[in-house]
Amino acid sequence: MISQAASLLKKHYGYDKFRPMQAEVIQCVLDNKDALVLMPTGGGKSVCFQIPALILPGLCIVVSPLISLMKDQVDALNSNDIPAAYLNSSLSSGEEENIITRCLQGQIKLLYISPERMVQEMNRLLKKLPVHLFAIDEAHCISSWGHDFRPEYTQLKLLKEHFPAIPVIALTATADKTTRRDIVKQLNLPSPEIFVASFNRPNLSLSVKAGIKPKERIKDIISFIARRKNEAGIIYCLSRQTTEKVAAALRAKGIKAGCYHAGLPGEERSKTQDDFINDKLLVVCATVAFGMGIDKSNVRWVIHFNLPKNIEGYYQEIGRAGRDGVDSDTILYYNIADLVLLTKFAQEGNLAKINLEKLKRMQQFAEADMCRRKILLSYFGETPQENCGNCDVCQNPRKHFDGTILVQKALSALMRMGEKVGTTMLIDVLRGSTKGELIEHGYNKIKTYGAGADVSFANWEQYILQMLNLGLIEIAYDEGFTLKVTEPGKEVLSGKHKIDLVQPQVKKIETIEPAATHKSKRELHAESGAGSNLFEALRKLRKQFADAEKLPAYIIFSDATLREMASEKPLTEEEMLAVSGVGQHKFEKYGQAFLTLIHEMCYGISAKAPKASTYEETLQLYKQHFLPGQIALKRNLSAATIYSHIAHLYMNGDITSIDQFVSMEEINHVKTTLKSIGKVQKLKTVFDFLNGQIDYHKIRLALAYLEKNGQYSEVNN
Ligand code: ADP
Ligand code: ZN
Predict the structure, then answer these.
(1) Domain coverage including residue 247
(2) Does residue 382 belong to any structural domain of this protein?
(3) Is 42 in the pocket of ligand 1 (CB under 6 A)?
(4) Three-class SS of residue 305?
């Protein structure tokens, strides 16, 4: 069964192997058991029910809460040659009938449907259709504990009553245990297998920038974007007004930015969403309402303009970056004003206690002086041993110092002012400001007035945040946001404990204009290895197909797939099919166009006579006894390319022997390796497996030898 699943994964999706948990989940569903799957966004949940749908007879019904997502997912499936359709209010009755007929005739493998419709049809249509699996996507919507509760979902509990024998697979990216238990309970699943994948997303960089004022944040963001030409991103803001302000500031610099919040008319919102999906808008400034309805896999960065309310929300939002697995960046800005405002909101709600606790954890994350990923994952119940190396703390370890005296100065000033002031006044007093209000109150007469003049305002803000985090002070929201000294704070004041503070980070606000041609790490990387020109050209070709078919570009090929094409530079059908994400159907539709482009870009020859002439040229030089390295120099190509020509010429019979380039011993080594790997792999897989013991070009030649001499099929079995 599982080997059938693996070959379907290759054939339809073009992927070589399953991601963690996918195979186990598929096996469970095929064994006719219910499953609950918890995987982070981008973890690859869809494959978990789509492949069983292909293997099982009849039809899989997929319940999905968002109409916009249904269309995207069905388009993506169809582009992989998997027959799928959806039923929702956007269809005419004629279109609906047509789809139902096709379902009845067994022509559809996956039918997407909204929860409302599902409930209506439970006793009608669903009873007539050959259903063999139910998939409940975004299953956390069923739980009133979760953050996206949808009352329609609760009716899904009838599913097991109506169809006790049909397996149900529920999927979500929400990890918390309460929601998990609630999903199982609400869906009435008697004893489901529960799969929890790691929530680590190593391709996302994590960074927090504290104490930067909103105006400076905008400058910082503009230069961040300037370094990321053509890369799409989302900026989450706390208020509608901020989304508009930030978007306007970006547009003023020529950046294609839109904004999205609940106050805008529905039409405008869906246009913004569509434009983002179709790469017409590069940036969307949004309140949290944005993002759930999109599957765009090539969002390259996510910025939080303000501190999020809790870690769950933060994690979901940054999770919208890098779903294709390519390195992506996330930045969180915050300062004390964010914290004050959010605390006020949290207190006003009816779940004040929980919300305040969650905000506290969020704040602790933002203030962390240890690997941020460790903190994040420990929140979700995982305990990674190693520091991640891909967060701002790992890259810039924090320095501690004995801050007892500083803290005592602040606490003492607070006490002397009768705990009646807020942060700004406290800092002004410590720094010896001469503001009118300060003098009026006579705060310039207290003993600690000016005692902290050597510390900048911004740094004092940082220290006060740390004091809040350490529980030495608290904010009295019901008394005009004044600061109060806590019991532990009083103990520090009386000299009972020492306090360690973390040195504030030196703030670097960059000011690169969008017009400047600075390059991102990714771009530089691409250039050094694969040639970003080729990547850009591949992107353009993808866009042409996308426009012609009215599909989002990432449905044609993901960024990850294009990157691999740009670095592997496939020359033949087999090599193109070995690229992750190029399945049979997509190869047939687009493969030749992409191959031709790669030939043109890499060998500078016209599309009409690509292969023959470049191979011929290498052959002529070879016949004149030039060595591959010399041919490469003469032709201004890489040696790797010349070796691939030699492999091709050898296969073609133009060259009769390659034993001067690769030894029999090496060929046998590759053969044994292939036997243990099992099936035909791409060069890199073999190379990695051998830990680089055998050069790339030799592996290529060895494969050619094995194939030519009929030993390849032997390997395959
Ligand atoms: P989720 O629903 O969990 O957020 P998706 O199912 O949308 O994630 O998958 C995220 C991305 O990963 C998609 O582009 C998908 O095609 C890709 N993907 C899924 N499974 C694999 C795999 N086994 N190998 C490589 N890419 C995969
Ligand atoms: Zn780290």
Answers:
(1) 204-352
(2) no
(3) yes
(4) coil
